[in-house]
Amino acid sequence: MGANAILLFTIRLEASLHEPMYYLLSLLSVLDIVLCLTVIPKVLAIFWFDLRSIGFSTCFLQMFIMNSFLPMESCTFMVMAYDRYVAICHPLRYPSIITDQFITRAAIFVVARNGLLTMPIPILSSRLNYCAGNIIKNCICTNMSVSKLSCDNITLNKLYQFVTGWTLLGSDLILIFLSYSFILKTVLRIKAEGAMAKALGTCGSHFILILFFSTVLLVLVITNLARKKIPPDVPILLNILHHLIPPALNPIVYGVRTKEIKQGILKLLRRF
């Protein structure tokens, strides 16, 4: 979370970073910070101070943020992939396509699409009749962990989360794959010396983060499908790590691989 905050301050204070790609990176950092603040405090309270109780409203708020902000991250990666596609495949048109207005509209789209489509998940869960126990077998309020405590039929809850989750994440990953396919096709045609390495270098950080995000998600899905063959604590641990590791890696990977950000951070540190 601290690394994301430093990245935000660096982009805010360094004029040379006031460009569309870095605005998208700022949006990604904000999403990461909110996710960390949603998950980390409660998990630490449970393990450090044994404070296991959570309010009804707080639980469903946590559920909403986790279900909506992860697709928001995926959608942000998709917009960033489009930004790189335009920059490499249509460089002359980049200034006229990727404008500040485009970034503003993209940010509104990221928040609105994922927030509205995932909002029914906690609403459906909160309307269930909880007549049994109130102990969640998890460190965080996931939809299934909470819904399983209900005496009602939770088929609709499962179906909506499954369809919505795979529709949002699946469509983003398909568009990201298409963008990078066109980028690779264009890069392979570049004959100027060093141009290919430079083009691939601009996409390297972005691709690493997308690959890690997708890999962790895939491992989590496979683990949940094979729940009967593995200890029950493993899916819970992976679920928590999926909310914590990508937000921690995003600013580190960009900070290490992006020269402009490294220089901006060094300038910021010299001021203090």
From TrEMBL:
* Primary localisation category: membrane
Q: What is a GO molecular function of this protein?
A: olfactory receptor activity
Biological process terms from the Gene Ontology for this record are:
cellular response to lipid
G-protein coupled receptors family 1 profile domain: which residues?
3-254
Q: Name one GO cellular component term.
A: plasma membrane
Instruction: List the signal peptide residues.
Output: none
Per its UniProt record, what Gene3D superfamilies does this chain match?
Rhodopsin 7-helix transmembrane proteins
Entry keywords, A to Z: G-protein coupled receptor, Membrane, Olfaction, Receptor, Sensory transduction, Transducer, Transmembrane, Transmembrane helix
UniProt subcellular location: Membrane
Q: Where are the transmembrane segments?
A: 21-40, 46-70, 163-184, 204-226
Please give one Pfam family short name. 7tm_4
Top-level taxon: Eukaryota
Q: How does it sit in the membrane?
A: Multi-pass membrane protein
Q: What is this protein called?
A: Olfactory receptor 56A4
